[in-house]
């Protein structure tokens, strides 16, 4: 079926598919996106034989009603094709893994319940293979970021003195915009944090940080991000890494916000009344940043709730997905 490609990019696409199949991946994994890109090129770039920026960004314009997950699978395909061609010495545009710059905003990935369950199962399983504090630390910090809707740096840089393990209150000081706020852990999260803290106190009694590395300092942001991506890949065995969405730790915070909005819609709450509470809890400077999360809800849920979408849209700043 892959031999039916007809655009100028067909030879390059076929070459990548053949290479992936030789590595043990299923041809069917690539066919839907391959044919979609091929049709797009036939219609809009009939004479183009190179994977250019214009081809990639044009093809990746999000379709009406397209799920975020499928959009990310197309982005992963385009990035994988660019990386393959470049490795073969063929000039090609490689889609950046992160697209945030200035006014541009990377489209968040919203984990499903089953994805989160498997992800944390993989994170927790590392503890059975390693005899150190680090596995317990990662299980705790990623859960804390998710269950409290923290920015990754707010969890990573958390000070020991800022966590009250008796009340479950956390004073967030390392914030965007330097505006302090208090969040409250659930009982389960407080219990997990207390169990972790006992081991941390024994291993690093002098570190001022709640999640210290072996030197008593916070782990670096790139190190944490690489660990998170590795866990997500391990939670999806047999899937070509190029086809996986480029998830970030920040997506745990996105999932927290979208889950809160979904619960309020399910219970018939008035979102206009509830949004200021979510804004304060998450530490957003502008309400428009909180309203943006409604973009991430399933379209049928938003429509069925009778939300005045036009009014909300006017509150959301312009978003561009692509930038250098």
Key phrases:
14 helices; hpI Integrase, Chain A; 51% helix; single chain; mainly alpha; globular; disordered C terminus; 324 residues; two-stranded antiparallel sheet
Walkthrough of the structure:
The model is unreliable at 99-105 and 315-324 (pLDDT under 50). This protein has 14 helices and two strands. The chain is globular, with a radius of gyration of 22 Å. The longest helix has 20 residues, at 68-87. Among the domains are: 2-87; 113-232, Intergrase catalytic core (hpI Integrase, Chain A, Orthogonal Bundle), CATH 1.10.443. It has 324 residues and is mainly alpha-helical. The protein has helices spanning 10-22, 31-44, 53-59, 68-87, 113-125, 133-148, 152-156, 187-203, 221-234, 250-266, 271-282, 287-291, 299-304, 309-313, and strands at 169-172, 181-184. Helix 6 packs antiparallel against helix 8, helix 6 (133-148) crosses helix 10 and helix 10 (250-266) runs antiparallel to helix 11 (271-282). The protein is 51% helix and 2% strand. It has a two-stranded antiparallel sheet.
The CATH superfamily name of one domain is Intergrase catalytic core
Question: In percent, how much strand structure appears in the residues?
Answer: under 5%
Radius of gyration: 22 Å
Integer average pLDDT: 81
Helix-and-strand structural type: mainly alpha
Please identify the top-level CATH class of one domain: Mainly Alpha
Q: Kindly, what is the distance between the CA atoms of the first and last residues, rounded to a whole number of angstroms?
A: 35 Å
Amount of helix: 40-55%
Regions with pLDDT < 50 over 5+ consecutive residues? 99-105, 315-324
Q: What is the strand arrangement across the widest sheet?
A: 1-2
CATH topology of one domain: hpI Integrase, Chain A
CATH architecture of one domain: Orthogonal Bundle
Q: Count the helices. How many?
A: 14
Note the main sheet: 2 strands, antiparallel
Number of strands: 2
What's the SSE pattern?
Answer: HHHHHHHEEHHHHHHH
């Amino acid at each position: 079926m892959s031999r039916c490609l007809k655009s100028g990019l067909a030879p390059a696409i076929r070459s990548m598919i053949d290479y992936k199949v030789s590595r043990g991946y299923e041809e069917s994994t690539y066919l839907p996106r391959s044919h979609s890109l091929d049709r797009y090129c036939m219609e809009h770039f009939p004479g183009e034989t190179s994977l250019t920026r214009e081809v990639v960004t044009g093809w990746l314009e999000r379709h009406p009603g397209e799920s975020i997950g499928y959009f990310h699978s197309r982005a992963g395909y385009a990035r994988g094709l660019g990386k393959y061609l470049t490795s073969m010495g063929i000039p090609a545009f490689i889609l950046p893994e992160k697209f945030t710059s200035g006014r541009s905003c990377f489209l968040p990935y919203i984990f499903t319940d089953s994805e989160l369950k498997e992800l944390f199962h993989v994170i927790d399983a590392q503890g059975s293979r390693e005899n150190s504090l680090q596995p317990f630390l990662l299980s705790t910090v990623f859960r804390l970021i998710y269950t409290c809707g923290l920015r990754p740096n707010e969890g990573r840089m958390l000070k020991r003195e800022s966590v009250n393990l008796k009340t479950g209150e956390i004073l967030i000081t390392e914030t965007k915009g330097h505006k302090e706020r208090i969040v409250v852990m659930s009982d389960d999260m407080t219990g997990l944090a207390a169990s972790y803290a006992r081991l941390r106190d024994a291993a690093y009694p002098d570190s001022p940080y709640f999640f210290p590395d072996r030197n008593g300092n916070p782990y670096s942001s790139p190190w944490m991000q690489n660990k998170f991506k590795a866990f997500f890949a391990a939670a999806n065995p047999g899937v070509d890494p190029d086809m996986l969405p480029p998830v970030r730790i920040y997506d745990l915070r996105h999932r927290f916000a979208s889950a809160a909005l979904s619960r309020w819609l399910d219970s018939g709450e008035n979102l206009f009344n509830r949004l200021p509470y979510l804004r304060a809890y998450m530490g957003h400077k502008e309400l428009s940043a909180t309203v943006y999360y409604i973009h991430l809800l399933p379209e049928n849920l938003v429509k069925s709730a009778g939300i005045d979408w036009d009014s909300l849209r006017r509150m959301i700043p312009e978003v561009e997905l692509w930038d250098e």
